[in-house]
Amino acid sequence: MKYSRLINAKHVHDYVIHVAFKDGVEANIDISDQLWGEVFEPLKDKSYFQQLRYDSEIHSVVWPNGADLAPEFLYERAKQASASHL
To answer: How many domains does the structure of the chain reveal?
Structure first.
């Protein structure tokens, strides 16, 4: 599976993140279905979820508690979201 490098991410609303990749793929993705397990449990608090940031070292989305999302996952979700809006 080939994916492009994440170059930016920001909180949009609720559990939606806007992601942008080097190859031009860009989309708003809802990750509410991924907030399970010990490290992701605190992210169910919307005010905590909003503390996400783009980490330029690992090219992904991270939170203060160490939670992060695989860039490959974000890319696939972004491609799916982009395709559904065509």
So the answer is: 1
Q: What angle do CA 16, 39, 6 make, to 5 degrees?
A: 45
Determine how many CB atoms are found less than 10 A away from the CB of residue 8: 12
pLDDT at 85 over 70: no
Higher pLDDT, 51 or 84: 51
Closest CA to 17 of 75, 83, 57: 75
Contact 49, 41 (CB under 8 A): no
CATH number at residue 5: 3.30.2020.10
pTM higher than 0.85 for the full model?
Answer: yes
Distances (CA, A) of 81 to 2, 8, 14, 40, 61: 17, 16, 17, 22, 18
- As a whole number, mean pLDDT of residues 64-83 equals 93
